[in-house]
Amino acid sequence: MTSEIRVKDLGYFRGLLGQRPRQMTLTVAKALSTRARPYSATQSADFESIESAVREIERQSNSLEEITTSAETIKRGSERILDRARIVREGLAKQVIVLDEKLSDLRDLVGSDSNIAIAA
Fold first, then answer.
1. Could you tell me how far CA 78 lies from the centroid of its own chain?
2. What is the pLDDT of residue 15?
3. Could you give the angle at the alpha carbon of 41 between the alpha carbons of 35 and 45, nearest 5°?
4. Which of 16, 17, 43, 86 is 20 to 30 A from residue 27's alpha carbon, by CA?
């Protein structure tokens, strides 16, 4: 049996992009089975191998969902870490500005009294 996907079939498959992997797999399998040419009386379908293939595709699509969930968890965690690093960086920068201003004020104060020296 030969399966051919014609140009007009592509529009149907474009609608599948928004589906979850398992739904998409089952929809594609149904679409291909309805497009298949009918068997003659001398041909027989190997339903066991077809069923096995569909179950394997289903198992692998479930694995994709687990991988996606794990990746999203990692992404959220890294975003939190980066956000925290940004907050700390901004806080440190503000404190450097405050310390620079206070040091300048202290230098001005000490500058009038030559007996006290501040190392910079």
1. 12
2. 57
3. 55
4. 43
| pLDDT at residue 1 is higher than 90 | no
Where on the phi/psi map is residue 49: left (φ > 0), alpha (ψ -120 to 50), or beta?
Answer: alpha
> In Å, how far are 4, 9, 21, 39, 69 from 32, measured between CA atoms?
9, 10, 16, 14, 29
Does the pTM of the predicted model rise above 0.70? no
One DSSP character per residue, the chain reads ------HHHHHHHHGGGGS-HHHHHHHHHHHHHHHSPPPPTT----HHHHHHHHHHHHHHHHHHHHHHHHHHHHHHHHHHHHHHHHHHHHHHHHHHHHHHHHHHHHHHHHHT-TT-----
Amino acid identity at 48: E
Residue 94 to residue 83: CA distance in whole angstroms:
17
Residue with tokens 């104060």, as numbered in its chain: 109
CB neighbourhood size of 52 (10 A): 11
